[in-house]
Design a protein that fits this description.
- With 334 residues, the chain is α/β, with parallel strands linked by helices.
- 38% of the residues lie in helices and 22% in strands.
- It is built from ten helices and 15 strands.
- It has helices spanning 16-37, 40-45, 52-73, 111-123, 150-158, 172-181, 206-215, 254-263, 278-285, 305-322, and strands at residues 3-4, 76-78, 81-89, 91-97, 130-136, 140-147, 191-197, 218-224, 231-232, 234-235, 238-239, 249-250, 265-270, 291-299, 302-303.
- It has a six-stranded mixed beta sheet with strand order 6-5-4-7-8-13, sandwiched between helices. A three-stranded antiparallel beta sheet has the order 1-2-15.
């Protein structure tokens, strides 16, 4: 399988047809100029050394050279190899609330986007740790299984919205149970769940789920997003209203989140605008006993660009050596 490290350069290949179009226009303009000088056949006889065919041959060679140059510039690679790494670290399941209440704008631009930004930034600081991502509202879903591929983690994170879970609600307990089941078999001692939510209107026994996690050796941390005073929820160009037409206000339920963290043997942190709360939690997780994981990744692609660039160089040299004059030597005859 061939892949290109810089596929954007392949767009330059669209220029090749314009090379021939430009030559055709130039040849047409030259022909019109010759007609102004006199009879076309006579003028052509006065320039016996000029070769029309060589001009086209040079254009073909130049286009081929440009083609191989662009392919080389795009860095084609083949032969990816599987390589196993041994790394040490913790397994961290991030459990993110995507209910409509996370659209409240007591953070900029809103709770959900601010949480996603914080997760993305903390992912950049992870080294050796494995991370997974679970989203929840009225139900929970594994958005990203536990992995050490931080690039994929950020890609999956960017696609999350309040529409990712169609069932509204705040099923924190269900989300914690989903996280418990999602850890790898390699992990036993260094496992942690980080729940990011406003904690409002939880629909199940999240404290009991956190206790089960603690019994399994998994620490549960909670990050409270929002303000106790409450904020309205933007929805469809206006504000979310209940069945009576009253504006719905979402408030941070810190008491519940503290109980969950206590039952899970972790800690509760209230998210701020500057420090969201993930940094101190990750620092605490780093104190857990690190475990060694086997991680298999694709790497060591064989670079092929040098061959294409070499072909392009040879063709460019040939194009320059051909010239535009007819050869005076003939294979047969005088």
């Amino acid at each position: 399988m061939i892949i290109f490290a810089h596929p954007q350069y392949l767009l330059l290949l669209l220029l090749i047809p314009f090379f021939f179009l430009g030559l055709a226009l130039w040849m047409g303009a030259r022909k019109r100029r010759l007609r102004k000088l006199g009879d076309e056949a006579l003028v052509t006889e006065l320039m016996p050394s000029w070769s029309k065919s060589k001009r086209w041959v040079r254009s073909v060679l130049y286009s081929l050279a440009f083609f191989f140059f662009v392919i080389g510039l795009s860095r084609p690679q083949i032969g990816a190899k599987l390589k196993e790494y041994k790394v040490k670290g913790a397994e961290i399941m991030v459990v993110l609330d995507v209910s409509n209440s996370m659209l409240a704008q007591d953070y900029s631009p809103n709770r959900l986007e601010r949480a996603k930004l914080a997760i993305s930034r903390i992912t950049d600081k992870l080294q050796g740790d494995r991370i997974g991502l679970i989203i929840f509202a009225g139900s929970s879903f594994v958005q990203l299984p536990i992995t050490s591929d931080y690039v994929s983690a950020k890609m999956f994170l960017s696609n999350i919205s309040t529409e990712s879970i169609p069932i509204q609600g705040t099923a924190i307990g269900d989300a914690i149970n989903t996280a418990i089941r999602s850890f790898s078999a390699q992990s036993e001692n260094s496992r942690a769940i980080i729940v990011i939510t406003d904690g409002e209107n939880h629909e199940d026994d999240a404290v009991a789920a956190a206790s089960q996690a603690a019994e399994a050796g998994i620490k549960v941390y909670t990050i409270g997003v929002g303000s106790p005073d409450g904020q309205p929820i933007p929805m469809d160009g206006g504000l979310l209203r209940d069945k009576e037409g009253n504006i719905v206000v979402t408030r941070l339920d810190e008491d519940t989140l503290k109980e969950i963290a206590q039952a899970g043997g972790g800690a509760y942190v209230r998210a701020g605008n500057d420090e969201f709360g993930l940094t101190p939690i990750i620092s605490d997780i780093k104190k857990l006993q690190e475990e060694e994981y086997s991680s298999v990744v694709f790497e060591e692609y064989d670079e092929q660009f040098m061959y294409f660039l070499a072909i392009a160089l040879v063709l460019f040299v040939l194009e320059m050596l051909i010239g535009e004059r007819k050869s005076r030597r003939h294979l047969f005859g005088k």
